[in-house]
Amino acid sequence: MCMTLKATNENLPPNVIRQLAKELKNLDESPPEGINVIVNDDDFTTIFADIEGPAGTPYENGVFRMKLLLSRDFPQSPPKGFFLTKIFHPNIATSGEICVNTLKKDWNPGLGLRHVLLVVRCLLIEPFPESALNEQAGKMLLENYEEYARHARLYTGIHALKPKNKSKTGAISESTTALNVDKSSTASIENTPSMPPAVSTSTSSRAFGTSLQDQNPTVSDPAVGAAAARKKDGPMASKAPLDKKKMDARKKSLKRL
Predict the structure, then answer these.
(1) Strand partners of residue 63
(2) What residues are labeled active site?
(3) Can you give the pLDDT at residue 40?
């Protein structure tokens, strides 16, 4: 079987090697959406690729590794495709073999590797249960799509690789650092004992409708000083003149006697 045979570039004609080298360079410099080709310069007969699960399918958020095996008479005969990552799909056998017309009766020597890889990824979007290699998946897809999708998502979550984050790492680390700083600042403020707010003297004075001079009169004002003294001495200060008047009245009454 071609799966077990170890082929090298020497098994391919020079013109095919040149064409493959050109195609692989193009795939490396301008990869198709959701497809990453892994190039081995020492062996063009085995092409590895990572396929991202298309959005809106049960394979979303998963990356599936596959390989294309090229025989000696390629491109006259189609490559054979296999998924190395376990996947629940009607057109992919439990052994990983891919069943798609492009790699069988619809093969054309003019079709390139890019076209083949795009067809394989499209197969994840639109399976063909009528030509199923995985009969359980095909039957389930036809009879109960929700159950089929649940199984496919389960396989994806268990076996598929995780997609790499395409966002800029620097931007993420900077925003994360800023977020952590904000959190630590907030935490330190929340943990600090609350202190009464400082109130300006002018604001507090206006709030009570008075001034600090009214609240704390100085002795330099005679009237204010006298009033303060009377307030300080209390009732004893006002009682002294009354006693003096009583004594004067007693003296007058004694003179009359």
Answers:
(1) 52, 161
(2) 99
(3) 83
